[in-house]
Amino acid sequence: MVSRTFKFASNGRLNKRKFNSDLMHLIMNYHYSGWWRTRKITENRDKPNEIHNPSYSYSSLSTFEECPLKYKLKYLFNIGEEKNLAIFVGSLYHEILKAFFNQPEKDYSWQNLKKAVINTFSSDKYGFEFNYLRNEVSQKALRDFRRFHEYFIKGKELNVISEKEFSFMIDGDLIRGRIDQINLISDAEAQLIDFKSGSRNFSAA
Questions:
Q1: Poorest-confidence range of 1-10, 57-66, 160-169, 171-180?
Q2: What CA–CA distance (Å, rounded) separates 92 from 123?
Q3: Global pTM?
Q4: What pLDDT is stored for residue 203 in this prediction?
Q5: What is the percentage of the chain residues whose pLDDT exceeds 70?
Q6: Which site among 104, 152, 188, 195 is 20 to 30 Å from 78 CA-CA?
């Protein structure tokens, strides 16, 4: 019946009188209210995590809380999200900080941070489709990192660990994550910093 309907809708060859007769037969003898009475609830017994032990992160758990289907597509089927400006700029900010804190000279001056920003945005590795967008994003990055330097870097004796990965087990499940920056203040005090670019404020590309 489905095949016949498709042919009818696509102007294929079909005996219209026979089609209408079959359709009336269905309507008279199989009322639509009973179409789903014979449905059978099924269960997906496939358990992909039996092969690979599951691991979780803040991002994956928050994705599951937001939408279980989104979690399944992204973390079980490895279907990634389309990259947008927010994700792209966030990756640039991380590269800037990595270059700044991993420098062998350990010179944490504003001039060195500014240099890291300019070099990152000038690199051909990170292409922008439009020059105006590159200029707008880079100018905002300079303002953001200037504020960051004033609050967290300037005038401080820093012992910094950047991009620190960690993992631990809870009831047999692996929890993993990454801390953007750890400032070791003393033997008993540390600052944990999570960077956010706030890039959704940029003009649409």
A1: 1-10
A2: 11
A3: 0.56
A4: 39
A5: 77
A6: 195
